[in-house]
Design goal:
The chain is of the alpha/beta class. The protein folds into two domains: 218 residues, Peptidoglycan recognition protein-like (Lysozyme-like), CATH 3.40.80.10; 65 residues, no CATH class. It is built from eleven helices and eight strands. It has a six-stranded mixed beta sheet, with helices on both faces. The chain has a two-stranded antiparallel sheet with strand order 2-6. The longest helix has 18 residues. The radius of gyration is 20 Å and the shape is globular. Bound molecules: zinc ion. The site of zinc ion has 7 residues, from helix 10. This is N-acetylmuramoyl-L-alanine amidase. One of its GO terms (molecular function) is N-acetylmuramoyl-L-alanine amidase activity. Keywords: Signal.
Length: 310
């Protein structure tokens, strides 16, 4: 369905905080209330019409339930710009949508929201903001393989393998995640990184390591407690060594791959994992980062579970 000026206008008005009562009313009917969060002022999110989005190539799927998880991604390419302008945020939104539609063959942007390094927030897939503002429905995106009906994803512009996000991006991430969590009644414990689901380094080691801090910051805004510590997910990469690599190699051998069991994640192990993942349909990019980074042969939770003895 093509976007319309009416939706764009409504999105920005809501985003500008001028329709708080309408959003607040939705809080009386959370789809999956797991907490009693403090209502959050709507953040300034620029709707698809503002950044010149193309219409989706097929109707948007609106699910009649809230998402379970809020998932954090990084975009990887084109790297860590120092252009913090709003125009840059719009340009990256167009670039991601073009890549997802033209290279991946998706109907629209895969992620529901995008945050630029300047801290500007944009809507990704059409109608995402409308759904969050309503608080009971969820626009299905394409950003976490085999989990898209459960997740709402945020692409954060940049590569966070070795360096941290900008303070502006971080502040917007806290604000947007808190708003989504309050609208849907999602516990801060259910904030995740992409690598908690798929074999990818996304959202980068540095940003991933800050997720406990993000959960705490969101919980503080919502006035709710975090119930438990969420352990980091297992991620094994070529070049790694140790007992987990040896265990993976042992399991690969059980699946018929003639790899060494030396605990060294070398080329033969990488090739075997890549072949194993492909045989289970796990070789497709699931978000922008996994499409643009070389993550062939990575072992994440999905691959690890398939390797485990049945
Ligand atoms: Zn990702």
């Amino acid at each position: 369905m093509a976007d319309t000026p009416a939706i764009n206008r409504r999105t920005l008005l809501l985003g500008g905080g001028l329709a708080v009562s309408a959003v607040g009313a939705a809080l009386t009917l959370p789809a999956q209330a797991t907490a009693a969060p403090r209502p959050q002022a709507p953040p300034l999110v620029y709707g698809t019409g503002y950044w010149g989005a193309r219409p989706p190539s097929a109707p948007i799927t609106m699910l009649n339930h809230a998402p379970t998880y809020i998932v954090v991604h990084h975009t990887v390419n084109p790297g860590n710009t120092t252009d913090y302008s709003l125009e840059r945020a719009f340009a990256i939104s167009r670039s991601i949508q073009n890549f997802h539609m033209d290279s991946n063959g998706w109907i629209d942007s895969g992620q529901q929201f995008t945050i630029s390094r300047g801290g500007h927030m944009t809507e990704g897939r059409h109608r995402s903001y409308e759904a969050v503002a309503g608080g009971t429905q969820h626009v299905m995106g394409a950003n976490v393989g085999n989990h898209n009906s459960e997740v709402i994803g945020i692409e954060n512009e940049g590569l966070y393998t070795d360096v941290d996000v900008t303070p502006a991006l971080w502040d917007s991430l806290v604000e947007l995640v808190a708003f989504i969590a309050s609208q849907y009644g999602i516990s801060p414990d259910l904030i995740r990184g992409h690598r908690d689901f798929n074999a990818t380094a996304c959202p980068g080691d540095v940003l991933y390591a800050r997720l406990p801090e993000l959960r705490d910051a969101v919980a503080a805004r919502l006035g709710v407690a975090t119930a438990r510590r969420t352990e980091p997910s297992l991620l094994l990469r070529p070049g790694d060594r140790g007992e987990n690599v040896r265990l993976a190699q042992t399991r690969l051998r059980a699946h018929g791959y003639a790899v060494p069991t030396d605990g060294e994640f070398g080329e033969r192990t990488r090739d075997a994992v890549a072949e194993f993942a492909a045989s289970h349909g796990l070789d497709k990019p699931t978000c922008l980062a996994s499409a643009r980074a070389d993550e062939r042969g990575f072992i994440g939770p999905d691959v690890w579970n398939l390797l485990a003895p049945q």
